[in-house]
Amino acid sequence: MAEARTNSVREAMDTLQEISRLLNTGLDSETLSICVRLIEQGVNPEALASVIKELRRETAALKAAERIGSPSPD
Amino acid sequence: MSKVDMKTPAGLLHSLVCRITEKKEDDVSPQFQYALRVLGSHFTPSVESDEFQLAERIKRKLVKQRREGDAARFAELHRKLQSNNVVKNRWAILYLLYNLSHGPDRPGIKITAGEALFGQGLPTDATSTPFHHVPGMPGPLRTPMPSGGDTTGSSGISSIHTADRSDPTPTPQSFPASYGPTPGITPAQAVAQRQALGNRLALSLSSRQPHLGNGDMSVATVPSGRGTASLSLRPGADNTSFELSEAALLRDVLFVFQGINGKIIKMSSTADRFLIDPKVGVPQSWRDLLGKLSELGWLHNKIRKFVDSKISDRALGLVGQSFCAALQHELTEYYRLVAVLDAQVQQDQDLGVSVGSGGGLTLRRLVVWSYEPLQRLKTLACLVDSCKGKKGGALASVVHSYMQTGDPSLRSLVKHTLNVVSQPIWEIMEQWIYEGDLEDNYQEYFVASDPTVKEERLWHDKYSLRKSMIPAFITREQADKILLIGKTINFIRQVCQDRSPLKTKAVVKTGEAEEEGDLFTRDVDGSLQQVIDTAYRETSRILLDILHTKYKFMDHLKAMRRYLLLGQGDFIRHLMDLLEPDLNKPASTLYLHNLTGILETAIRATNAQFDDPDILKRIDVRLLEVSPGDCGWDVFSLDYHVDGPISTVFTPETKIQYLRVFNFLWRAKRMEYTLTEIWKDQMTINKLLLKTVPELATLLHRCHTLLSEMVHFINQMQYYITFEVLECSWDELWKKVKESPDLDHVIASHQVFLEDIIKHCLLDDESRELLTQLRTIFDLIIKFQSAENTMYKKAEEEMNLRLRFLRRIQENTEKGKWGVTELDEEEERTRMEEFRDKFLSKTTSQLRVISQSYQDMVQNFLLMLNEHSDPSLRFLSFRLDFNGHYHQREPKLNRSLSVSYARTRQRSGKEF
After folding, report:
1. Taking Cα atoms as reference points, which of B33, B20, B17, B46 lies closest to residue B145?
2. Which of B226, B339, B614, B829 is 20 to 30 A from B701, alpha carbon to alpha carbon?
3. Alpha carbon distances (Å) from B218 to B213, B245, B796
4. What are the b/e assignments for B38-76, b being 16+ CB within 10 Å?
5. Across chain A, how many H-helices and E-strands are there?
6. Which region holds residue B612: left if phi is over 0, alpha if psi is between -120 and 50, else beta?
7. pLDDT, tens digit (0-9, with 9 covering 90-100), for B716-742
8. 10 Å Cβ neighbour count for B493?
9. Which residues contact residue B837 at a Cβ distance below 8 angstroms, ignoring those fewer than 6 apart?
């Protein structure tokens, strides 16, 4: 019984992963599973999406700054 | 990771933040704080959770990116997910993924921001993500950011800049994919960004593709920079002849589709078609395409004009109005298509999708897409042409004739139109066959009513078929039946004064409850027939019931037979007895009231008294028009008054026919009566006469033979009339009336009955000569009667004289005188001689003349009978001459009789 449940959970995760890939979300399986768990616990997906994007943008901005910053000393 | 508790949402969120920012757990506290705040302040999604719609949206997006295979794959995965049931919040997850999704060619996070801004700058179409339309969107600009991106806008622009540079070959195809989710931006900022973006883009594009030149860039009709972008991507080979972009032409064509003049395509009133401005440089191939496309506009105008001119025309009638409504409906559909196309053009333009490069609208694509509407409009225009000036059923017929097409889509179009068009007809029909009401204000229905017709003629004259208005899908028989149904109902209501509600509708409905919905959608199939049949049977049954029970139709029919066709023998005989003295007088001395009195007496004295008083009341005497010299017999006739519904069967015309038959029968009856009187006289007087006047013997014998001949003739005639004509026809009529399904059948069989009788009673045109011959024979009989009467009177006188003479002799002898003196004897002898010479010879010759002419007449009559086409009359002739008496006297008769006999034998074969 438990095994069957685990199987179906894995199956669901695989499916979601595939959809995520199709939609080019850029989420790896770990992040995706965290997101799924969050959502299953009732987090607003809209808010979550905006948080993820905001974080990404910030990271990207940071990295860009690093990149711009790093070659200039060269 | 290990430090964070993965069980709580906060822990999960923390690890998520770590993973995304790719930092250590301890370094992300500001971001984590921010995330927590955002999530904490928005518990419920601002969009409705509709999983199906979301899935559809994702699929559309994939298709738009030309990833049909992926779309299918997604659908499959989605199904799988649905069946799996482990994930409860499928919509939320899909929504998250959808919001995070990117175009196919841009994996990686680093250009996301730029992409997102690109998308933000473009007004998205109605089906794209609702993100931009949600005012209360959580976003970094609304919530104070603890760190980092306080100038997202500018950072976005800068990032796009970098992104553009870092990726020098952005393909235009990626534009539609780029309207993905972005954090909310206030409108003012968005506009500013867009302008900046447009400039930047134009610059970058022109710098990358310098060969396009300024000519293209400066086209005035292209409204925005986006248009330039699309323009710049046209195949370069045709460049020189393009003065106008395809997008501009498309816009023009869309105007033309609605029948409005475009900028360069205009309606030419002389050529009666849309023409492209010859001065504008448009390549020939496009001109052809535009010509094809503008046909739609022309057709649209044609239909539009028709609808506009007719929709307010009241004289057009309901059917015409529904036709216009159907056209209007089709036009609305067509407008919808134009609107969709317009939106598509707008979207393409706004998105900057290059024309001809895939997703957008092109002239060629438009030609393909407009093929079906073109066919539809063509058919409608044909309908408009052929329906002009038509109305009502005729219009429906015309529409129906267009059903004869092999194209199923066109047929369904015509069928739909036909359904709408025929709706008023069906409605009128329903009203008519169930209620008998004719609500046809525009003379569209195929049943016409003449309001001037009075009730007595309602059945015959009031309603008629308007042949031109019978729709082609209703057969003539059905139309006749429909007419009959409504007529029957009206007849019941108005003439029979029966207001009880008819149950026809209920009967029809229960009979075919399941087909009720079908009633107005089908054309010519069984169900219409069935409805008509059921309604017809039901109404006719009700009417016949009323006629039979309330109005005693059968009793009246029988009364006709008994009194007008002399079926009630004792009554007729008695009436004749009573009437004889009156009728022998000249016609001008007759008084109707005397005769009516006699008629009363005759009824009282005979079995007729047991008849229904209502019927007896209707019997009356009628005197025909008196012409000089007529005696009472010629003008007397019986009459039968009819009124109400019965008079529909016994119309004045049929009454005249009855009168003619009555006259004939009355005359024949009179002959029989007369001959009987003569026979009675002969029987009583002859013996007495012969005793005293023996010289009368020859004469009397001759009289007797002649009388016998006449009696035989009249008897056979009577037999023929009674048994071969009246009874046979009557029996047939009776059977037919009993089986009649409707009043029309009753009337028809009654008519047939009358015509049969008239024909066989020699009253029709064909037998006129025969009838004259018969009349002469009858006249001869009358003449014979009077001759005989005179003779008897004379003979009786003579007899009495002789008897007195003998008595005187006896008296004288008893007195002891001489019986007769010389003088007396002389006187007696001269008187007797005178009687013998003068009277006897005169009467004998007179009788001989009568007898001779009678013989001739009968021979002629037989000859005529033989030549008559009616076989039953030939049998009569055979019966009249059963012993060949007339054969011997007339060789011609002999021959023709034998011929006819042979013919008969041949015809009836072995029966003889």
Report:
1. B33
2. B829
3. 9, 11, 144
4. bbeebeeeebeeebeebbebbbebbebbebeebbebbee
5. 3, 0
6. beta
7. 989 998 888 899 999 999 999 988 888
8. 17
9. none
Q: How many CB pairs under 8 A join A and B?
A: 189
Residues on chain A touching B93 (C-beta within 8 angstroms): 16, 35-36, 39, 45
A-chain CB neighbours of B102 within 8 Å are 23-26
d(CA B493, CA B501): 10
Distance CA A18, CA A26 (A): 12
Mean pLDDT by 10 residues, chain A (74 residues): 75 84 82 84 83 84 74 45
Task: Tell which residue, B530, B330, B499, B299, has the closest CA to residue B418.
Answer: B330
For B277, the token pair is 């401005």
Task: Give the CA count within 13 Å in the CB-facing half-sphere of B725.
Answer: 28
Which residues partner with B751 through β-bridges?
Answer: none
| Single-letter amino acid, residue B635 | V
DSSP B769: H
Distance from CA of A36 to the nearest CA of B (A): 6
The C-alpha atoms of residue B282 and residue B725 are separated, in whole angstroms, by: 93
Is A65's Cβ below 8 Å from some Cβ in B? no
pLDDT digits (tens, 9 = 90+) for B641-672: 888 888 888 888 888 889 889 989 998 999 99
User: Residues 3-62, chain A: which have Cβ within 8 Å of B?
Assistant: 5, 8-9, 11-12, 15-16, 18-20, 22-28, 30-31, 34-62
Question: DSSP string covering B349-394, please?
Answer: HHHTPPTTSSSS--HHHHHHHTHHHHHHHHHHHHHHHHHTT--HHH
- A2 interfaces chain B, CB cutoff of 8 Å: no
Is the CB of B51 inside 8 Å of chain A's CB atoms? no
The pair of three-digit structure tokens given for residue B180, joined into one six-digit string: 């993905």
User: How many angstroms away from the CA of B121 is the closest CA of chain A?
Assistant: 18
Secondary structure (3-state) at B167: coil
- Is A58–B85 a contact, with Cβ atoms under 8 angstroms apart? no
Contacts of residue B442, defined as CB under 8 A and 6 or more positions apart, other chains included, come to B315, B316, B317, B318, B319, B320, B391, B392
Nearest to B9 among A30, A43, A55 (CB): A43
Mean pLDDT of chain B: 75
Residue with tokens 């019941």: B492
Rounded to whole angstroms, the Cα distance separating B743 from B733 reads: 14
What tokens appear for B365 in the block? 């694509």
Which tens digits make up the pLDDT trace of B270-304?
A: 777 787 777 777 778 888 888 888 888 888 888 88
| Number of CB atoms found within 10 A of residue B554's CB | 14
CA dihedral B3, B7, B13, B15 (to 10 degrees): 30
pLDDT in the model for residue B146: 41
What three-state secondary structure class fits B448?
strand
pLDDT in tens, B583-605: 888 888 888 888 889 999 998 88
Instruction: Annotate B109-137 with DSSP letters as a single string.
Output: STTHHHHHHHHHHSPPPTTS-GGGG-TT-
Reduced 3-state DSSP string for B474-519:
CCHHHHHHHHHHHHHHHHHHHHCCCCCCCCHHHHHHHHCHHHHHHC
d(CA B392, CA B615): 48
Q: Extract the tokens encoding B148.
A: 């980092």
Nearest chain A residue to B9 by CA distance is: A38
> Which of chain A's residues have a Cβ under 8 Å away from the Cβ of B34?
51, 54
